[in-house]
Design goal:
By secondary structure, the protein is an alpha+beta fold. It has one domain. Strand 4 and strand 5 form a beta hairpin. The termini are far apart.
Length: 131
């Protein structure tokens, strides 16, 4: 693993005139051993995605923001979508499979400038360390 760039985007912004345009909110970068360790944590997360909260209105179903992970390695570049702010689709989606959110897997990408502000109760319970 060479590096992972974690770019947090706002998915819905009323002032954006064209649908589909995203606004970069923040970003961070992991390199070397830290990047490798972070990707291994995602691989250890349970398959199937979640936690989700069924029954929410479609306009807020996928949340207001998400983090795109741009993973670089000797094999090339790939992307993983990290969703956490909605009612459905939460987890790590690499385009072929979805893994569930875990505190260990999300922590490297949701620190510092990418800190998460508002979460649904089920997501909060999973991502917040409890003593």
């Amino acid at each position: 693993m060479t590096s992972v760039s974690a770019c947090k985007y706002e998915l819905s912004e009323p002032s954006v005139p064209k649908r589909g345009q995203l606004r970069l909110m923040s970003s961070l970068r992991l390199a070397g051993v830290a990047a490798d360790r972070a990707i291994r944590q995602i691989a250890q997360a349970p398959t199937g995605g979640g936690p989700d909260v069924p029954g929410c209105p479609p306009e807020i179903a996928y949340g207001s923001d998400a983090i795109v992970l741009r993973v670089r390695s000797a094999a090339g570049q790939t992307e993983i979508m990290l969703r956490y702010s909605g009612c459905v689709g939460n987890g790590f989606d690499d385009g072929t499979g979805v893994r569930g959110l875990t505190a260990a897997a999300a922590a490297p990408f949701t620190a510092g400038p990418n800190a998460l502000v508002m979460l649904s109760s089920p997501v909060y319970e999973v991502l917040t360390p409890h003593d």
